[in-house]
Amino acid sequence: MRIVIIHTLRFVLFLFAQALLFNQLEIGFGIQAMIYPLFILLLPYNINIFLSMLIAFALGFGIDSISNTYGLHASAAVLLAYLRPIIFKSFEPRDGYEDTQEMNFYEMPTSWLLSVFGLMLLIHHFWFFTLELFKFNEVGFILQKTILSAPISLIVCILIQIVFIRKPSTSR
Amino acid sequence: MRNLIAFFKRFRVFLVFAVLQGLALSTYFTYLNFPRAQYLTSASIVNGHILTVKNDLTKHFNLSYNNYKLQKENIALRKRLPQSFIPIQSNVFKIDDTLFHQQYEYIAATVINSTFDKRNNYFTLNIGSSQGIKRGMGVFSDKGIVGVVHNVSEHFSVVKSVLTEAINIDVMIESSGAFGLLKWDGGNPKIGSISGISNDMKIKKWSKIVTRGGSGIFPRGLQVGIVSSFKPVEAKPLWDISFYYSEDYRKIQRVYVVKNLLKYEQKELESLIPPDKEE
Hints:
The structure holds two protein chains of two kinds.
Chain A: H1 2-22, H2 36-41, H3 49-67, H4 72-90, H5 110-133, H6 139-164
Helix pairs in contact in A: 1-3, 3-4, 4-5, 5-6
Chain B: H1 2-10, H2 12-33, H3 45-58, H4 63-78, E1 104-113, E2 122-125, E3 138-140, E4 145-152, E5 157-161, E6 170-173, E7 179-183, E8 191-198, E9 208-211, E10 223-232, E11 238-245, E12 254-260, H5 263-270
Antiparallel strand pairs in B: 1-2, 1-12, 2-5, 3-4, 3-12, 4-5, 6-7, 6-9, 7-8, 8-11, 9-10, 10-11
């Protein structure tokens, strides 16, 4: 029960933080920081994939309806939720995810975090910007946006985890 | 039959994924052309109120600049008031005459949400159908044109800004009268482009671009920008003209919506033109 409440609260916070804060930040060079992928990545490891895709869809649509993008974020979020178990599986550490409660900064090794989160964010951003521009002759601009935005999103996502997620007590 | 069920069972994750993707993408691509999904936009009541609260928080950031702009515009308008004229020939000067019939009315509005770094940028205004806004009305600020109303709810409206791919507002170069369609290539929110001007026209750098007023959305002669560069399009007898917008869309707040009182009359007349036969 506790976990449901936590994730519901996070859902609302991520929705409004993305739509009202991060979508309004206009840094230039086509950079757009996106933090809501972090919410999808932080869902429990063994969550039903249908449920996670539906949650991702709802989150994406909420962001879309506030920032007038009509389905772009929803599409990218659903893709992320779909690929999540596949990528987690392929990056599984030797002793599996048995002990981990949540794939966050404190529970996982940094190299795992950087590679998995980085890869997921790259895929997500590439999909998003491809759909947004949707033209062959703008491939350069799509790549520019993806390559510049993904590292910034990754840094912001890690900072959010450091600041907001409580460090688990070492006695456990 | 059993095979079919087995197939669905095997690919059920992918099928749900495909259905959700289809739903999201169809909304996206239909909206680009036709705003059917009205309840999903920032013109809807709930999102409109959220954005109003956000705007209440952020509107003061540019307050002094906006006040300055309004003041300047007030001075320009005050100059035209009858009180600031001296009638030279009292029998000629008349304020309220029948020679001029009012064609355009303006409704003031505030931009409560805007973007400029997406491929298609939409602005949300704080007025809607209850203030007389309709789809297809033009929107401009004191420095230049802003866009065309795309979607209206009772108290809010969404404007398709000039920072959109297929905005197609008819503009002309003030000095020569050559006209074309305004486009935006994406990327830089300061630079737009004009297509459709034939390359035997002479164009000077830094010449002013204004609206043509052909389609009745904007009055003639509203500022749009100044020509920054032009080069011929390959394999076509056309210029590819880029220009600097005169308005800075990154900090736009106060705008006016154009209400054309004679639009219906113009449309009715123009609908009498026989359509071109396809050959």
